Amino acid sequence: MLVNEQGQGLDASPTGAGAGAGAGAGQDDSKINSVVICAAIVAALGGLLFGFDTAVISGATDWLQSIYHLSPAMKGFTVSSALIGTLIGSIAVGKPADKYGRREILFVLAILYFVTAVGCAMANNLWVFVAFRFLGGLAVGGASVVSPMYIAEIAPAKFRGRLVSVTQFNIVLGILLAYLSNYIISSMNLGDVQYRWMFGVQAAPAVAFFALLFTTPQSPRWLIAKGRASEGREVLLRCGASARNIDTLVGEIQQSLDTEHHATDEPFFTRKYAKPIMLAVAIAMFNQLSGINALMYYASEIFTMAGASKESAFLQPVIVGIVNLAFTMAAMTVIDKIGRRKLMLVGSIGYIISLSVTAYLFYTHTGGPLVLASLLVFIASHAFGQGAVIWVFISEIFPNRVRSQGQALGSFTHWVMAAAISWTFPIIAAYAGWMTFAFYALCSVGQLVWVLTRMPETKGVSLENIQKQLGIE
Hey, is 291 helix, strand or coil? Predict the structure, then answer.
């Protein structure tokens, strides 16, 4: 059932008005083949590097502050410097992805990940370090757009949620690996070069990502959009499309692109795209207003604030990463069964409870295990709700002809908010303390209201049918 903004049900069943459209018509949704699985896993490695690059700095903030004598404001800028790159990367990657192809852009992102890893490890002053973090941000911003978009375009509708959420799984796996890597390196007592090793180890998975991309096919929908229908047909067949209905599927994709009546460079910010635009902006804003990136970037510091020893402040983020991964896996198993909206409801309630308790604990100066427990509930709520849903949802709600622009808008909004949260957290926490978490809890109440009143359900609906049911012709 697709629910509109007024809460009315729209029939998305096989016998409904949209039956037979898109992947549901030409692809065998009863099974999924190895080509699709392998391509999704490889594309999602962009997410693993995204997660690693995002979280690795959490173990280096004290070193950076000590070596470069950073004020709280300057520390916030240094930590968020990568996020400035993500803003540009997420908004700029759409047109190149449309022109050159999703897979080709993933190759470029793999190179950027490698360059930023080596550059940050070898930087000889703060501004060189910031410059390479900025390049890493370009890769993260680009990956947040292209990886889920590519997977959404090769996946059968029935399995699209689980396959696109492989990106989120890899993001949280990358976060866990970053925390674990930081913990191992911190225990080696490497002195002033410790933080260099923390960043440098990212080069290895970047090389693996680049090499594995050679095994993946082009996006069939991109091929068809570029007038290469025969190549798109071949890829669809490789991805499990039914040979009996392949012409129908190709025709429906071409109709959704509507190249005869819509220029591929038509204006994006128009009234007909208002619904998906507002949905993408809202879910991306609420994602960061929960304070999730404050925890990801300043995990060790937050636990130190709560009274943890220096050693356990590096270990506790590993526990956070394990919980994040476990609940992401749990969400992946049910996202195509119970739907995106119910996951968001559960996550929103978990946000409100855990953040309120965390604020209270900091207000009463109650630290230690209780803070860890409340933050574990918070990360579990994020992983099971927003974390699992955001990239799936944004990749689904825009028509084929503007999907890259829509994905870019959602990612850009996400990273604008991430930069704001990450830059301001050290300053606000220094002066406002517990009220920081109370503010995040209040924002989570806003998310709950939005989910209840505005968020549609896209579970099991083909990409071509979603645009019809959102009123886009």
Answer: coil
